Amino acid sequence: MNRGELIVLEGAEGVGKTTQARRLVAELTRSGLDCVHVREPGGTSLGEAIRDVLLRPFRTIAPTAEALLFMASRAQLVSEKIQPAVIAGNVVVLDRFFLSTYAYQIHGRGLPANEVRAANHLAVGNLVPTVTVVLHLPDNDGLARAGKRSGHDYMEQLGDEFHARVGAAFDDFATPDWQRRHPECGPIVSIDAGGSPDDVFRRIVAAIGVYAPRLGVELTAALEQEVAK
After folding, report:
1. Domains in the chain, ordered, with CATH?
2. Pairing assessment for the beta strands 35-39 and 91-95 based on DSSP bridges
3. C-alpha dihedral, 153 to 167 to 18 to 41, nearest 10°
4. How distant is the alpha carbon of residue 141 from its chain centre?
5. Quick one: pLDDT at residue 60?
6. At what angle do helices 17-30 and 213-228 cross, to 10 degrees?
């Protein structure tokens, strides 16, 4: 049995990860592939309880406690959902993963990088994504989008300087030097999240196809069928 794929969508607030992840799962499922869609934090009973603690507005959490709660959710998600699906040969589409921790907790919160990376390794073992697609928008544009959904959650309320650090971190993650120094994150591709959802999805498909050719073929065929209708 072929090992499955782990496709991660990443980016700062309001870049459209969740919308694109849902479409990606729908297209892959329509193509006949077994697909699992999960999010961080969350994806399991334990993870969803942790998500409620972490993202509820107007709550103060110490940065170290915050990081460890994210790691606890991740460890459970990997053990319960991601690893079994990948071993079974399925496709996992994940909304946020390693890079969010590195952006928010290391760059945003200022926690020690080596300690956070060690905790992350404890949570996931040797699991490496097939590819991580980082959606990019200017910080203010993404936050404005996020605020229109249903008000800002805890992470979205942390201020312009915090989100500027997070945005700069995501930009840095796409550079070859950063990726060389962080092999645990696997390949990372940054794409423009501006324009129509269809345009963004086509960019995502192109990025995935480089590292998961089988998925790229299926997704491209699905796009062509939509155009032909």
Report:
1. 5-228 (3.40.50.300)
2. parallel
3. -60
4. 19
5. 81
6. 90
Are the beta carbons of 197 and 19 closer than 8 angstroms?
yes
SS3 (DSSP) at 207: helix
Residues in the chain: 229
According to the model, what pLDDT value does residue 1 have? 47
Beta bridge partners of 211: none
Look at the block and give the residue holding tokens 């969350």.
42
SS (H, E, C) 128-174: CCCEEEEEECCHHHHHHHHHHHHCCCCHHHCCHHHHHHHHHHHHHHC
The residue to which tokens 């963004």 are assigned: 200
Q: What is the pTM of this model?
A: 0.90
Please give the backbone phi and psi of residue 91, each rounded to the nearest 5 degrees, phi first: -100, 130
- What does the block give as tokens for 69? 């709660």
Whole-number Å distance between alpha carbons of 202 and 98: 24
Question: pLDDT by residue (tens digit) across 12-64?
Answer: 888 999 999 999 999 999 999 999 999 999 999 999 999 999 887 767 889 99
* DSSP assigned state of 189: E
| Token pair belonging to 158 | 């942390």
* Pairing label, strands 5-10, 131-136: parallel
Q: Which stretches of the chain drop beneath a pLDDT of 70? A: 1, 58, 139-157, 227-229
The beta strand positions in 21-177, using DSSP E, are 35-39, 91-95, 131-136
Distance separating alpha carbons of residues 47 and 54, to the nearest angstrom: 10
Q: How far apart are the C-alpha atoms of 224 and 218, rounded to whole Å?
A: 10
